[in-house]
Every structure is written in structure tokens, then in C-alpha cells.
Amino acid sequence: MELSIDKSLELTVTAPMTATVADVEEVLESRQEWLLQKLYRLKEQEGPPYRKEYMSGEKLQYRGRQYPLEVVEAGVPEPTLSFDEQTFTLRVHRFDGDVDDVSVRRKHQAVVDWYIRRAEEELPNRVSRFESRLGLEDVPVWVGEIDGRWGEYDNGSVRLNWRLILAPVRIQDYVLVHELAHSVHDEHSDAFWNTVGALIPDYEDRREWLRVNGNSLAI
Questions:
Q1: Residue 101 and residue 166: Cα distance in Å, rounded?
Q2: For 156, what's the count of Cα atoms within 13 Å in the CB-facing half-sphere?
Q3: Does the pTM of the predicted model rise above 0.85?
Q4: Which of 9, 71, 150, 211 reaches 20 to 30 Å from 203, CA-CA?
Q5: How many domains, the chain?
Q6: Is residue 78 part of a domain?
């Protein structure tokens, strides 16, 4: 019996005609660790999402979920994005309805601006849920562009990458707690991870999710 996984993460089982369902299940169970390793390696090979053209039918990610995008013509001087908890609506001037480079850049900037505003509104509020448990109060939170990292703790302040707003809330919370824990421990010592674990018991799973899926948190 042979197992193979292609780049689309589809598993193929090749078995003799005499094999039963129970036989296949037994092999799958015995090869579980191998399957997980293959899945992680293939997932890690994925790059960021394809460049969007911001046309109706595409999807935008928010808080770990994908929502449909609807593009409509409107009397607006520049593209503007809104969200009704079910659908993203991008209102554009008729001259921005095409997929030329200039129009795509203008629409892209409108989408980025919306995400940054939402991140600035939501992420600092989530910090307040954890700071008191570390003996902290009114920790300043800055949200913006950070190259190569999701957050950092510096001189009593937390800095967060706005792209975290694309991730599931549980992943946002892991990054927030990670940075807040640096108020107590500078290094990633055992004591540091114990502090993180006291607030996020499954932090290892969340950290692994971010390691594997971080590239997908892009617009």
C-alpha cells in the first residue's frame, strides 16, 4: 500500500484490490506522523497569495475567515472599502474599474488603509484583556508596519504588525501575550514561556500556526 501527497495537499492511497477499508485505516493511522510532516513541509513551501486585481468575486481575509469582495461603481474620487460583517464592498470611480497597474494600486491602497484602521481600533482593545494579569496597566499600543516580525515590546510599549488583523483572533491573542510577557522577561527563557503558557495554555499550537501560515497573512 502506497501513500502520496501532491502540492494541492491531496492525499492518494494506492492499495491492492483485496485491501479492505479497515486495512487502509490501519495504514493511515500507522503513518500519521509521516503525513503530518509532509503536510507541514508542503504548506511551508507556499508563498504569499497571488496578487489581487480587486475585482468582484475575489475574497479578502479578516480575522482568519475569507469574505467575498464586491466592486461597485460610485461617484467617489478614490476607492473606498466597507464591510457589513458578510461582504466587503469596494466603491470605485468608473476609471478605476479596470485592472491596469494604476487602478490596482489605488484599490490596493484603499484596502490596506481599511485594514490598518480596523487593526488600530481592535488590537489595542485586546491587549487590555491580558495586561492586568501581568500586573500591567494602560500599556501603550502602536499598530503599523513592522518588517519581519509580528510584534515587539520596547520601553514599556507594544508594537504590533497591522497584518495581524488578518489572522484568527486566537492567533492575535498569542502575539499580544508574547509581547506583553517581555515586560517581565527580556529573553525567550523557560520562565518567559511559562509566563506565556499561564495566559495561553496552547501557545505552542498557536505559535506553530503562525509559523506555517504567516505567509498567507498578506493582501
A1: 24
A2: 6
A3: no
A4: 9
A5: 3
A6: yes
